[in-house]
Design brief:
single chain; mainly alpha
């Protein structure tokens, strides 16, 4: 006896007409208002984005300041391209 493989795909859990994956994809494309993410998934992604923003802010604050465009006139004369 074989066991059914576990899946996270919603396409395998939904039975629409034939229950085939491409039919579900078509239904999902035709009815975007009926397809929503789970609250748990949305909360998880919100938390991940907050953490990512905090890490980015920490990196920006800990980094050193550099002069991106220092006075161009003093370093190189206008005709020199070295």
């Amino acid at each position: 006896m074989t066991r059914k493989k576990k899946t996270r795909s919603l396409a395998d859990k939904v039975t629409i007409k034939t229950g085939r994956r491409k039919d579900y994809k078509k239904w999902r494309h035709d009815n975007p208002d009926q397809v929503t993410s789970s609250r748990r998934f949305v909360a998880k992604k919100q938390q991940q984005r907050k953490l990512q923003a905090l890490r980015k802010l920490a990196r920006q604050q800990s980094g050193q300041d550099i002069a991106i465009h220092p006075d161009k006139d003093t370093d190189n004369p206008p005709g020199d391209r070295s």
